Amino acid sequence: MGRRFTPDGAEVYVATREGVCVIYAAAGRVAETIRIGPSVSLVITPDGARAYVTHADGAVTAIDTRTRRPMAVAFGERPGLADERPPGSAIRPKGPVVRFAAFEVRKVRLKVSEKTYRDRFRLKGSFSLGEGSGGIDPLHEDVTVTFGGFSETIPAGSFVRFREVIAGEDGAAKGFRYKGKIGGVTRVKIHRNGKFRVRAMGLQLSGLDRHAPIPFILRIGDDLGETEVRFERKSRVLKRWRGNGGKSDAR
Predict the structure, then answer these.
(1) Residue 81: which of 53, 117, 106 has the closest Cα?
(2) Among residues 49, 15, 48, which one has the least CA distance to residue 34?
(3) Residue 26 and residue 127 share a domain
């Protein structure tokens, strides 16, 4: 079913070609459109805390109804929806892609808190464009960040240009930056030279196995890089952990 009321009847969640449209039931006014890609059906948990959305390819996205942000989910916790993805597998961006020729994560920090909506991650990395790429333009292209089961698409037009001096490098680097809200991706910087930074806060990363490789995907328009990050310590607190530095499969 592509339309569901929240248990209190205050809002309606509707599956659309763009993702999920949240409507104030009484006013009939759109509260927000959650852009997670074409959706075909959804269910809302009895407590109203989450909405589970299926896509045409069978993938499933969970939405935190409090923050209206996509979130990671544990395998088997998708009531009423079929999903054959293995535990910890990433929610993959859809559509044709040109893979980066090289893609690596050089530094990762992760905090998984015992308190709700306190999880966070941030990472740094770099990429080089693949053959057939038409270049990147976050000003006019969607940017999707995927970390394990968490995925958020930042709509085209959300980035602005920036210029800054980088220590140890000549001249000023040009690029694009995004500032979001707590409860999802809060900061992204993408440099023209291929370096990038991503930060997300206020998440609920339930089902994330910190001791197993965690898929990370960055998609800018039709350019995509994919790798895995690993952690050296078994701590729940924020540490200076490094990713595996692995390059993506440029296929």
Answers:
(1) 53
(2) 15
(3) no
Query: Domain range for residue 110?
Result: 98-229
Helix (H) or strand (E) holding 69: strand 69-71
In the chain, the number of structural domains is: 2
Nearest by Cα to 102 from 124, 120, 84, 125: 125
Contact indicator for 70, 49 with CB cutoff of 8 Å: no
Distance CA 146, CA 92 (A): 7
Task: Say yes or no: 195 and 103 in one domain.
Answer: yes
* Cα 146 to Cα 91: distance, rounded to the nearest angstrom: 7
| Token pair in block for residue 171 | 């001249």
* 35 contacts 157 by C-beta, under 8 angstroms: no
pLDDT tens-place string over residues 68-108: 888 655 444 444 443 434 333 444 445 578 999 999 999 99
User: In which residue are the tokens 């809002």 written?
Assistant: 11
Specify the pTM: 0.59
Structural domain includes residue 138: yes
Matching residue, tokens 């993408």: 190
